[in-house]
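Researcher: Hi, I'm a grad student and pretty new to this. My advisor asked me to get structures for two proteins we've been looking at. I'm not sure of the right format, so I'll just paste the first sequence and hope you can take it from there.
Model: That works fine. Here's the first sequence with its structure tokens right after it:
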Amino acid sequence: LYIQALKFIKSYPKKILFVLSATIILLSITGFLDRLWWGFELTSHFRVQYFWLLALSATWFTFGKKWNYAIIAAIFALVNLSLIIPYIPTAKVVQASQYTLRSLSINLDFRNSSYDKATSFITRSKPDILVLEEFTDEWEKGLKNTLSTFPHSYRFTYPTPPPSPIGSKLHSYFTPSTSYEKYAPKKISIGLFSHLPFENIRASHPNPYPVPHVKAKFKFKGKDFILFGVHLISPVTKKRSEIRNKQLLTLANMVKDLDQPTILIGDFNTSPWSSYFKDFIQMTRLKESRKGAGLHPSWPTPFIPLRIPIDHSLTSNEITVQSFSFGPNIGSDHFPIILDFSIN
């Protein structure tokens, strides 16, 4: 009995590694099947984590001379790597322009009250255009002095769906000091603040589940361009996933026929590896600013191992991206997006 127990203890780490590898391989596969079931889309977002775990597993199996397991783990590691490669930073040579604009998008997180951090960052970054998601009355008060420096502003307020049980648990896990149900506002806003005057500005109609966005037309150095500030719903239940997909489709239909330089920036609540996001890119023919600039996983800020890129900057061909980067942690569960661009 003692010998059997000793053998089991010695083989236990190998069994854990085998189960872990098999699970990651299964999740890698279901990530490609996200059209079949809403839950599979959630497994499509963690390609970086899958790659590293499988690469480590393949290495461990190689040292243990488990060649078949090592080969299988290596194959699926490479499958995930192939999806990551387009976002690996490259030394891009971008022609400098003296007419460069900066847009800044921040999902403030309605539970966050780090007004000083946000104020300091906005002041330091000096954006020409500022998009604020999860913008509440409390945030408007907390940023009053900073926002007053922007001569042009617009705020679109819309109803928020009731919190889902899964969403509430996720929020509680990542920020255990706050209660989602207690602090969730019935309505939140997207705020747009600019040093450039609005040529035209629109937002969604406040129907039960609008596409939360603001759309503004600007003119800069004689050139017109359109900027969308976006915040789509988190797809953590079947119903919310259906709403998010409809929002993506509606937004794509709004964008695809525009004949002017266009920028979309904000929280899309989906990663580049979702089939629905790929459909959106195909319909709109927009470019992902993070391609070649680095993945920049943007959520959740408190927990590094699970960070995924769900905040995006997308541009039409007439926009030259000078720089795409993220700002510091300002107490939100999202990192800010900084886009420096010029208009061809």
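Researcher: Oh nice, that was easy. Here's the second one.
Model: And its structure:
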Amino acid sequence: NTIVPLRREDGTVALYGENTDWLGIRECIVARLPAASARPKAALVIGAGGTARAAIYALSKIGVRTIYLFNRTRASAEALVQAFPNVDVRIIDRLGAWPVDAPTVIVSTVPASATTLDGTSLDALYLPAEIFAKDSEGVVVDMAYRPALTPLLQLAGNVAKSWKCVRGLDVLLEQGYAQFFLWTNRQCPRRAVA
């Protein structure tokens, strides 16, 4: 999502491409991880599109050992798993049922309107309270921008009070800081922007 023109020694210009989605996700997670979870054992990614790909890459760079992947379309999830042959990505069929360690990082990459806290709804993905392990702490990221308080972040605020919440706009700012550096080779004045 970011193209940077780089001048070569011979004077020609080459275009360098970078994806700042993963950088924004990584920075938001690392900045909020509890000290005890400096290297989380497990994480959960909801969704299997392009942003989920960035989330898996970011989580692997943080050193997460196991990444659970939940998506309503299994074929899309399987294709994403194949894209990361050196990462332990495990498809799960039900949120809240963890094969091994419960996740201490959750990243939702689906639109907020695609999720719900209403267990009777058939139009959206139901987010059960069990998505957050009892007496755990961690980081939950919802990549959706609108509304600012998504169903996932509402749930975290209600049942996982020791978890740090990250809004989609928080990640967008981190992406912007990374882009600013790539384009100018200078750090963005964060206080002036935020």
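Researcher: Is there anything I should tell my advisor about the second?
Model: You could mention this: The CA atoms of residues 129 and 155 lie 7 Å apart.
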